[in-house]
């Protein structure tokens, strides 16, 4: 069975400072990993994906994530936070052996202070 | 840019009533999914659907739930007899292949 652990339920940053959202996964085989973002009262938007190509993945809005197999991690970073980054972020793993169902982490809520 | 749409955005129903949640996936998608998110909790997989049949379902997806793609465009989730604990945000998603899924904005279901 696959699982995802997001180590921080809340992260607070100042505008213009770096953001780091931590994610660890468990998978019995080479996983596909994703980060999704959910703005208040909105749906889930794909930020970026890792599918066994480059380990450093760039996504939308300046976000990037690094896949580290040895650490079973897929942390999300952004060099400079913007007020519009305030949202909930989900780390997600895909199970290709089970209808490609997604398993979500608990989410990290990001607060950006002016 | 094409988007997944869901209707209604908010559905209020009484316990025991049937509800149908509707989704229109992106036209070239082949794989379809339903997920739900109970308030304050994780997003949970319900069911995946491919080639007009269920390919995977979770323990949540019991006999009270059903899905169908009646006309090649809509993808529906039916709950036959709603319970209070079915109150949640329900998300439809679609995918062209076996990688990223594109989500709709969700339907908030409130069971009273």
Question: How would you concisely characterize the structure shown here?
Answer:
With 114 residues, chain A is mainly beta.
What report would you give on this structure?
The complex is a heterodimer of chains A (114) and B (112). Chain A contains no helices and twelve strands. With 114 residues, chain A is mostly beta strands. In chain A, strands 2, 5, 6, 10, 11 and 12 form a six-stranded mixed β-sheet that branches. The model of chain A has no long low-confidence stretch (mean pLDDT 92). Chain B is mostly beta strands. Chain B is built from no helices and eleven strands. Chain B is globular. Chain B starts with a strand and ends with a strand. Classes of the chains: A mainly beta (114), B mainly beta (112). Chains A and B meet through strand 5, strand 6 and strand 11 of A and strand 4, strand 5, strand 9 and strand 10 of B.
Head-to-tail CA distance between termini of chain B = 37 Å
Number of strands of chain A: 12
Order of helices and strands of chain A: EEEEEEEEEEEE
Order of H and E elements of chain B: EEEEEEEEEEE
Straight-line distance between termini of chain A: 41 Å
Major sheet size, sense and barrel closure of chain B: 7 strands, mixed
Shape of chain A: globular
Look at the structure and give the mean pLDDT of chain A: 92
SS strand fraction of chain B: over 45%
Oligomeric assembly: heterodimer
Question: What's the number of helices of chain B?
Answer: 0
Strand percentage of chain A: over 45%
**Helical content band of chain A:** under 10%
Low-confidence runs of at least 5 consecutive residues of chain B: none
Number of helices of chain A: 0
Mean pLDDT of chain B: 93
Question: Whole-number radius of gyration of chain A?
Answer: 14 Å
Number of strands of chain B: 11
User: Which residues of chain A form runs of ≥5 with pLDDT under 50?
Assistant: none
Which structural class do the helices and strands of chain B define? mainly beta
């Amino acid at each position: 069975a696959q699982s995802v652990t997001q180590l921080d339920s809340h992260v607070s940053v100042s505008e213009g400072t770096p953001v780091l959202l931590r994610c660890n996964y468990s998978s019995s085989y080479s996983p596909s990993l994703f980060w999704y973002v959910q703005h208040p009262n909105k749906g889930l938007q794909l930020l970026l994906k890792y599918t066994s190509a480059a380990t450093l993945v760039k996504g939308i809005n300046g976000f990037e994530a690094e896949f580290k197999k040895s650490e079973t991690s897929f942390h999300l970073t952004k060099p400079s936070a913007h007020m519009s980054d305030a949202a909930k972020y989900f780390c997600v793993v895909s199970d290709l052996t089970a209808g490609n169902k997604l398993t979500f982490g608990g989410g990290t809520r990001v607060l950006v202070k002016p | 840019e094409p988007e997944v749409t869901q209707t209604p955005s908010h559905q209020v129903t009484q316990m025991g009533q049937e509800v149908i949640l509707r989704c229109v996936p992106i036209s070239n998608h082949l794989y379809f999914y339903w997920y739900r998110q109970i308030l304050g909790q994780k997003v949970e997989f319900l069911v995946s659907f491919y080639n007009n049949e269920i390919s995977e379902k979770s323990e949540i997806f019991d006999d009270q739930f059903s899905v169908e793609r009646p006309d090649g465009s809509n993808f529906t989730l039916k709950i036959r007899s709603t319970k209070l604990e079915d109150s949640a945000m329900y998300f439809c998603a679609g995918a062209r292949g076996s990688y990223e899924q594109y989500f709709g904005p969700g339907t908030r279901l409130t069971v009273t």
